[in-house]
């Protein structure tokens, strides 16, 4: 009995790979935060656009802002562009293609936004609180002393900034957890190399000095201030000084904890270093740059000592940023 092999020919078949699953629909909370963040940019962008087009909305008679000038025009254009970047940032944090954005293209603007908005998030509600308790002079009294902007402008603008900061934080944290979550999982781990420890110690020293100066100003001290700035002391300005002191201390503490390592969960020192470094670096640079140009209120600018303090604040943020970067590199290599 013979067995005959039977050969069958099958028509070629095409095996297409299964289509990639569609990204999940954004959660309702994220959709709300997206809408809130975008809406919060509208008042500031509208005001800046109006001023650039020649409108004087919100600017009272006698204000030095009515004199205009190239510096003021450039400042308005730059700050309008900065706030417009919030719209792009929101899109990156909420769209699927945002996960493919190069890390530096996202972290740099987020770091900057964190730095500029954090002192506002701390200071503006604090100012509202002291006014509600009857300790502050209020925006109306400030406007009466020296016409600059209508009081409602400050309320609208800083309320928008506060809402922006909270909404962006609510969008960035889940984005960062999804993309870089392993970087802050678990404990801090081993101590960073000795040179990083030296940088962290320098950051902590600078933070202590900066915090001491800001607290000195908060309680009515005048060291390093021009005569005009010293006379302009108010409870509201004291609240802002306290906010900057808190940010400086956060930067110094975060740098030391990251460099020391140990069993502490990594997320808390990372948060302190990120927020503290961003705030001290961004506001130190912002105030230093602003002090070098003509003052928008027409008054006397910061003294050379104050400029040196702003530079020290910026240096503290830079040193903490270096420690933070070294820690993240070590986590990636590990």
From TrEMBL:
Residues 1-26 are annotated as: Disordered. The chain crosses the membrane at residues 32-51, 71-92, 104-124, 152-176, 197-219, 239-259, 271-289, 309-329. Keywords: Membrane, Transmembrane, Transmembrane helix. Residues 1-12 have a biased composition (Polar residues). This is LigA protein. It comes from Streptomyces amritsarensis. The lineage of its organism: Bacteria, Bacillati, Actinomycetota, Actinomycetes, Kitasatosporales.
